[in-house]
Amino acid sequence: MEMVPALQLLGGYTAGQWGMVTTRQALSLGVDDVTLHRLKTAGLLETVRHGVHAVVSSATSDARLEQAVWLSLRPGAAAWERPKLDPDGGVISHQSAARLHGLGDLPNIRIEITVPRRRTMRDPGVWLRKAALSESDVTTLDGLPVTTPMRTICDLLDRHVDASHIATIIHQAVDAGQVRLDDLAEQIGSYARRYGVKPGNGSELLEQLLAQGGLSVHELATRHSGVTGAAEQYELGRS
Fold it and tell me: Could you give the CA distance from residue 190 to residue 200 in angstroms, rounded to a whole number?
């Protein structure tokens, strides 16, 4: 195929995929490997990761690598055809989800994805974890499925991430209105034992985690003007 019509085809398709296309998707459009190579040589396409390419003129996102990995989980399916909970796909999670939500400062050595069935990728920069997610566990950020801040915090607690890092994430999530303290205390009780707290006591675990960041639940609930009544709501939730 000639480069100009090929680029036009790819441009229309990639508009719904953050400017990217997989090799398999390109082939289904009639753009063969030779044409893809010519487009890359001409500086019109660039390789984001193996099997995923981006139109050079497209806007880039801070989530580009996560988006590219997510596309490669189902390289033949268009992004707009995939459900939020895709049985053959995955959801950005754990430290990668925290980064995309703007929470904490955990190192992101690998892109972390939760998948519904056991699978592997030949990429040391990608970590796949098999787990069941519900609709309420997942949100979308610019069309990319990502675990919610609440689910992300629970996943990090399950991994026994350092309490001081968790404290920072909770602080930022509460400040941003992404989680409520009473909901958090209710959800995290099952991880209490991992942090030396009485099993099932989410309120005590929350206090202990925040103490690692020099805070208490009451201080966090009342120090910001945007959290009106938060302390009272939390205390009611404990009673």
Answer: 5
Instruction: Tell me the two tokens of residue 47.
Output: 């390789």
pLDDT of residue 229: 45
Give the residue extent of every domain in the chain: 1-81, 83-147, 160-238
pTM of the predicted model as reported, rounded to 2 decimal places = 0.91
pLDDT tens digits, one per residue of 99-131: 999 999 999 899 999 999 999 998 999 999 999
* Token couple for 60: 């880039």
Q: How far apart are CA 51 and CA 68, in angstroms?
A: 9
Cβ atoms of 72 and 98 within 8 Å: the answer is: no
Q: What are the DSSP E strand ranges found in the chain? A: 20-22, 45-49, 52-55, 91-92, 111-115, 126-130, 138-141, 144-147
Write the class of the CATH domain 1-81.
mainly alpha
Assess contact for 36 and 50: CB atoms under 8 A.
no
